Amino acid sequence: MKARALALLAQREQSVSEIRRKLLRHLRATSLPASAGALAEEVDPIPVEDDGEARVDEVIDWLRAHNYLSEERFVESRLNARSGRYGNLRIRQELAQHGVVMTPEAAQSLKDSELERATEVWRKKFAHPPADAAEKARHARFLSQRGFSPDVISRVLRNARAAGKAETAD
């Protein structure tokens, strides 16, 4: 089971809840009868007894003790992977699903860069500022779905409109 956990961590950083879930799923799949091997994913999983959960917890403790599993590294890798495309709200929600939180320094850094990130995401998707209210709503929905705050969305669209007017005046 340690080998399986190390193989998962070699692919990318994992949260504790994620690695636990994957190891338990692996344990359930390997405890199925041989005749059900081909149908392992189609049948209801066989509950893993307390012994299996205890073994998974031991492996997780071992991974933490040897610094193979680190929540700080997981948060850092998630921030690096997501900050270029998503807003603070989406990133926080994703981290909460994994049962981890950002450090205050990381949260402040993300907050400080949110306007720049939202502007860049908007610029990649849309070539011109919104021409009318319907188009402005579409741009706002796009940024909102990416997890940017309403204040940042309004600032991005206001700045885009001002930049668009400055270009036409030239």
Structural class: mainly alpha
Number of strands: 0
Helix content range: 55-70%
Count of helices?
8
- Taking all residues together, what is the mean pLDDT? 87
* Helix-strand sequence: HHHHHHHH
Using only C-alpha atoms, the radius of gyration works out to 23 Å
Low-confidence stretches: 37-46
Q: Strand share of the residues?
A: under 5%
Assembly level:
single chain
N-to-C span: 66 Å
Gross morphology: elongated
What can you tell me about this protein's structure?
Helix 2 crosses helix 3. The chain is built from 8 helices and no strands. The protein is an all-alpha fold.
Report a brief summary of the structure.
With 170 residues, the chain is mainly alpha-helical. It has helices at 2-11, 16-30, 50-65, 71-82, 88-97, 104-125, 133-145, 150-169.
Secondary structure elements and pairings:
Blueprint: H1 2-11, H2 16-30, H3 50-65, H4 71-82, H5 88-97, H6 104-125, H7 133-145, H8 150-169
